[in-house]
Automatic annotation (TrEMBL), chain A:
It comes from the Bacteria. It comes from Mangrovibacterium marinum. Keywords: Cytochrome c-type biogenesis, Membrane, Transmembrane, Transmembrane helix. This is ABC-type transport system involved in cytochrome c biogenesis permease subunit. The keyword Transmembrane helix applies.
TrEMBL record, chain B:
InterPro entries: Cyt_c_bgen_Ccs1/CcsB/ResB, ResB-like_domain. Pfam families: ResB (PF05140). One of its GO terms (biological process) is cytochrome complex assembly. This is ResB-like family protein. It comes from Mangrovibacterium marinum.
Length: 261, 395
């Protein structure tokens, strides 16, 4: 079944690359829409065929998992793009989707690589995708913070820009919340409890709380724009600690999320 | 006009924090873990307190503070500060300074959460009084979170966890709590068969003098084998000719067998300077010597201990109520028996694939539906948030 993969993958790859190219140039909105949808459809058809052929949901091996990454990344990126006109999100999502397809193409692991039993769960895919989108959006908000600071120095900051920045935080925060909840639901199925204050969970919660505070801080506040942008950049540092730094913290030595060794 | 702003709000949160530390030191106890029905009563009290505060705000402006944004941020902070301790300090139950080493049982944490819930509850009530599309979104997020946190924290005292140690062929009707206390159950389980499916064991290159796995580009030098795989090390070329998942040594080779102690083995063709050797290596086994291969004076090639791909218990359940049935308990696929959720957690790891023991965990969490309702509302609220974003009026 997987040998048909090349055809569908190439359709998706080509159309998505076209979509990225089209969205980079301003005038070709229709082409970007059409190609983004076409590529996603092609992958959807492949997943359906594979599912029918295997007679089980294709969710068992890493290779099968990557198909879903690609698929949902493309969809989410497209929806966010349509709703909020954040082009960078479309480019990022399609870029990541292409990356996962390429990985499957270059390294078709029909046999699954070692994935410990607790990780073989249907929550794996939604949990990871939602976090990838959340991190991308919140990273984007930090970039907006940087750009905002620059605009303040130049004296050409627009009120709309601040609103757009806040909106990106809202959407990113929404995905972050979903990530936490999906993680909790998964933990319940795999380990018997939805929340154990595992170090990674604790840091994920802290990250979430920092953005929660940011959102509420911004309601009818008279905070200067400069501090707003600075806070956003600081919040992203907490996120990065959660993401990378945790492996080096003494409190994290027994975390189920530290996969090294 | 609001009575208090940020400085006052943080002062109040800080005063509560000091008070909780005071309780910690004076009583020298951890916060009590309350269970049914005291926890239910407490939740009802908390909700009513929020309602009362809201009603009082109609009479006196001071009470408006309880649903103000500064109070909310002070409340969130009271919850977050103890979590920060959790994040930084390795937790271990200890008698002294437990508010640092066992944060979740401390007064500081408990009082922080209670303060947080009172504020969040009042905030929620203030906004349900007017029905609009926007307030529905608000309600989903704020009440959803309240429900989650309230039932998760106050319900924690009702969670029951037991372990069940099963042996093949035997029937067990009790669980063990906290490692020693046995508790009779209203059902029994007979373990018919415990089985493990393994991944092919990795090939590793080991330094012969130290026994350590060699690092290459900062990664341990290990390979996932499959038949036909080719790789090289220094000037040697290797090709995997055969991968046997269950085999035993016969003379100087391995043959497929199924019996006790059978192990994974690899037949590898090693070529060097046009010369081809056939070598066999095998995983450690409880019965047979592990075959390794000395590549050169400093390097050994071997097969590591296999990792489990899935493991599961085939069991027969006898419920006191009369039902008898066969089922399977597997990692990530918990089953439900007589009000318990049952997880496959472990087995006799020294025996690996030949383990005849299986360890199950039994969990009873009567507040789970309530927490899940909270999750459900929050998920709906999140979609609202993602779709509507921020409004200009809130700037
Ligand atoms: C899942 C978590 C939360 C989300 C997604 C969230 C989201 C929001 C949003 C989007 C607003 C402004 C929009 C509106 O008024 O409709 C808001 C307002 C507010 N939130 Fe939250 N919030 C959350 C948790 C909390 C918590 C934990 C508290 C308090 C402890 C809180 C207190 C408030 C208050 C006081 C307001 C102002 C409402 C008003 O004055 O009418 N929120 N929240």
């Amino acid at each position: 079944m997987w040998y048909n993969f090349e055809i569908f993958a190439i359709i998706s790859l080509v159309t998505w690359i076209l979509a990225i190219g089209a969205s980079l140039s301003d005038k070709t909105g229709k082409i970007a829409n059409l190609t983004a949808i076409l590529g996603t459809l092609s992958l959807a058809v492949f997943i359906i065929l594979l599912w029918a052929n295997l007679q089980r949901p294709p969710l068992r091996t890493l290779g099968e998992t990557r198909l879903w990454y690609s698929f949902f990344l493309a969809i989410s990126g497209y929806v966010i793009f349509k709703r909020w006109k954040i082009k960078l999100m479309l480019i990022y999502s399609l870029g990541m989707a292409i990356l996962f397809l390429l990985l499957n193409y270059l390294n078709p692991d029909i046999h699954s690589k070692t994935l410990m039993p607790a990780l073989q769960s249907i929550w794996f895919v939604p949990h990871v995708i939602v976090y990838m989108i959340a991190y991308a959006l919140l990273g984007l908000s930090a970039l907006f913070g940087l750009q905002g600071l620059y605009a303040i120095r130049k004296g050409n900051l627009k009120e709309d820009f601040v609103l757009k920045t806040d909106n990106i935080v809202y959407i990113g925060f929404g995905f972050l919340t979903l990530g936490l909840i999906f993680g909790a639901l998964w933990a319940k199925e795999a380990w018997g409890h939805y929340w154990t204050w595992d170090p990674k969970e604790t840091w994920a919660f802290l990250t979430w709380a920092v953005y929660l505070i940011y959102i509420h801080f911004r309601i009818k506040s008279n905070l200067s724009h400069k501090s707003v942008f600075l806070i956003l950049m600081l919040a992203f540092v907490v996120l990065l600690i959660c993401w990378f730094g945790i492996n080096y913290l003494p409190a994290a030595q027994n975390s189920v999320h530290v996969y090294s060794s | 006009m609001l009575p208090w702003k940020y400085p006052e709000s943080f002062l109040i949160a800080f005063a509560l924090f000091l008070a909780s530390l005071g309780i910690e030191f004076i009583t020298g106890t951890t916060a009590p873990k309350i269970s049914w029905p005291a926890n239910f009563v407490s939740i009802a009290l908390l909700a009513n307190l929020s309602l009362l505060l809201y009603l009082l705000s109609k009479k006196r402006a001071v009470f408006k503070w309880f649903y103000s944004v500064p109070a909310s941020i002070a409340g969130i902070t009271s919850f977050v500060v103890p979590s920060l301790l959790l994040a930084l300090i390795p937790q271990k139950p200890s008698d002294s300074l437990f508010f640092l080493y066992d944060v979740t049982s401390s007064w500081t944490y408990t009082i922080g959460v209670v303060f947080f819930l009172i504020i969040l509850g009042t905030v929620t009530i203030k906004r349900i009084t007017k029905l609009s599309k926007r307030n529905v979104g608000f309600f989903l997020n704020h009440f959803g979170l309240w429900l989650c946190i309230a039932s998760a924290h106050l319900g924690a005292g009702d969670i029951q966890k037991l372990n069940m140690y099963l042996e093949e062929g035997k029937t067990t009707w009790y669980g063990i709590e906290n490692g020693n206390r046995t508790e009779e159950l209203n059902f029994a389980i007979k373990l018919r068969d415990f089985s493990i499916e393994e991944y092919p064991a990795k090939i590793a290159f080991v330094e012969s003098s130290t026994g350590e796995i060699i690092n290459q580009n900062n990664k341990p030098l290990m390979i996932d084998p499959h038949e036909g795989l080719q790789f090289n090390y220094k000037d040697f070329d290797f090709k995997i000719d055969k991968l046997l998942m269950s085999s035993a040594p016969v003379m100087n080779r391995f043959e497929p067998v199924l019996g006790m102690g059978a192990t994974q083995s690899l037949k590898i063709l090693k070529s060097y300077n046009e010369k081809v050797d056939t070598i066999w290596i095998s995983s450690p086994s409880i019965l047979y010597r592990q075959e390794m291969h000395q590549i050169d004076s400093s390097t050994i090639m071997l097969m590591t201990k296999p990792e489990a791909k899935r493991f599961l218990s085939e069991i027969t359940v006898y419920e006191k109520a009369g039902a008898v049935y066969d089922t399977i308990n597997e990692v990530n696929k918990p089953i439900k028996i007589a009000g318990w959720k049952i997880y496959q957690t472990s087995y006799d790891e020294t025996m690996g694939r030949w383990s005849t023991k299986s360890i199950l965990e039994l969990v009873k969490d009567p507040w789970l539906p309530s927490v899940y309702w909270g999750f459900f509302l929050l998920i709906a609220g999140t979609f609202y948030l993602i779709w509507t974003g921020k409004r200009k009026e809130d700037m």
